[in-house]
Amino acid sequence: MEHGFPREGKSMTPIEGLGDKILVQVCLIVDDADKYAKRYSEIFGIAIPEAHVTDGFSETQATYYGEPTEAKARIYHWHFGNVGFEILQPLGPKSVWQDWLDEHGPSIHHVAFRVKDTDGVAREFARHGYPVTQQGFFTGRFENGGHTGMYTYLDTVKDLKTTFELLENYDPNGEVR
Asked: What gap in Å lies between CA 111 and CA 103, rounded to an integer?
């Protein structure tokens, strides 16, 4: 394999479960979210949204390479057309966000796709050599106590030069997780 790609002449079967394959988000990892949000606001002439700070493990049950983590982040989020644009500042160690910032400096970290079966899609990616690096529930809950959704990062950097994120929203009338 050259650059992690299958040898020429051997094709890879497409990953199943990505639905309509519509990109829904691009995320910039930074060292100072407030500074970058202000600059983007000035450049685009748009209001700065309220910053959101994610919860720790007790709420998100986040894992970092399979181990529990208190990974938190300060996030600003806009929509440009149908694509979300996120500025994310890691708060504390033991996260793929901090790893990225340490290795690459402020830069694009991931592109996200909406999915309906995170576990199944993550298994498909793992089957192709792209394991889960970090995963957790969204901050916030439905009235019934269930989580509103889940994020999952996949180790796609070696071949695709960015991280893929799976985003799944849960049904408010569905199972409590």
From this structure: 18
